[in-house]
Amino acid sequence: MLEVPANVPAKRAVLAANMETAINGVWDAEPMLGERITIIGAGVVGALVAYLCAQVPGVNVQLVDINPERRQLAEQLGVAFSTPEQALHDQDCVIHASGQAAGLRQALALAGSEGRIIEMSWFGEGDIAIPLGGAFHSQRLTLKASQVGQLPPKLRPRWDYQRRLTLALSLLVDERLEALISGESDFEQLPTLAPKLFGRGSVELCHRLRYSS
Length: 213
What we know:
This protein is α/β, with parallel strands linked by helices. The protein is built from seven helices and eight strands, in the order αβαβαββαβαβαβαβ. The radius of gyration is 18 Å and the shape is globular. Residues 37-75 form the 3-hydroxyacyl-CoA dehydrogenase NAD binding domain.
């Protein structure tokens, strides 16, 4: 059990699990000084990944989403935004977090020669089709999975899950992250809210639920 840091509001601490996932994704992506990095999918995790990558000096980050209204979120987090049609190509690293096959296909298209693609989406038991001929082979692209359930191998001698969670909580001190909270409701309202929160086409980010005794 960990205490929420005194300088992190408890209501913002609900983002801790998403921040842990984002941290793991950034560790797997290994962003370097001055790189061009694209994150596809401006949900909570994708936005947090973009936010973290933008902290690396010289890194040029673009956050891509099919919903143009996510531009405001990107601006609040201090990162550039693009729709898929406007996204920049020849990227050093593309991190995919949209959960859609079309997003992964675009990730392969945006990566430059010897570029790396980090797949953070979870597709469950579904099958998806992606083009692994053409540019994937000719440009020697790398496709790597990132999953929060395991720490990157080279960090395991020094890191454990508690240390990662401690880091995640400490990073939530930034007030700009309030932009990821899209609403709050009483837990009793969940049956009515569920279609809006989880239905196809939902634009919700993190929606807090209040529990009362």
